[in-house]
Amino acid sequence: MYTFEELKKGALPKHLAIIMDGNGRWAKQRGKLRVFGHENGVKAVRETVENCAKLGIDCLTLYAFSTENWNRPKLEVDTLMRLLVASLKKELKTLNKNNIRLNAIGNISSLPKKAHKELLEVIEKTGKNTGMTLTLALSYGAREELKTAVQQICAKVKNNIISPENIDETIINNHLYTQNLPDVDLLIRTSGEHRISNFLLWQIAYAELYFIDVFWPDFSEQHLVEAIINYQNRERRFGKTSEQLN
Ligand code: FPP
User: Quick count: other Cβ atoms within 10 Å of Cβ 172?
Assistant: First the structure.
């Protein structure tokens, strides 16, 4: 059992992203409805956010709702939106107490009015916090994000604001939802699935991937610690050789 103090001696991921998967299966295992899994998923969100802040992670990004999730049964979509609104209302105080700044990526104007309004309000009311940036990916899809960036850049080319030969990675980055965030260092996916599912495709170019075989509602402090220890024991070469790094 490692303590947070021991973990802090190594390099922490600056940007940790998590695909929170397996709420539905967690509920099914217990003979309950999928929404019961999401309700319990919220508890794991709360605990993970608090642990990451305590640990000193700069940026935590959670895949809370994908562009594809709109196709789920209405009851499930409504429940997820209700949980989002309730959590935002309930956690504002805790976010401020822990100096956490809320941020969102995705096509957030497509959220139901109430959720959109609450989200913007909490983003504004935590905007001056200087600790961890907690980003919720909501109605997020990486292909949609890239498509929008290409459209915006093309419009600037058309209006002679950018010339095509000057388009570089920085310009592309600056047109993504994540423009103010560093690249992802560590991506965790729960539930035993080994997929990226349209999450942060550009931003994970050099991320370490970590797949864990527990359903999201069961993801605990110990699982987080194990993921970070595993990350700290990897050699990130960014295309170089081991010798060049040493
Ligand atoms: C994946 O499990 C989980 C989601 C699609 C939503 C994640 C949402 C929460 C944890 C709760 C709301 C979030 C916040 C930030 C308040 P799944 O339903 O795909 O599970 P399955 O693969 O077993 O079906």
Answer: 15
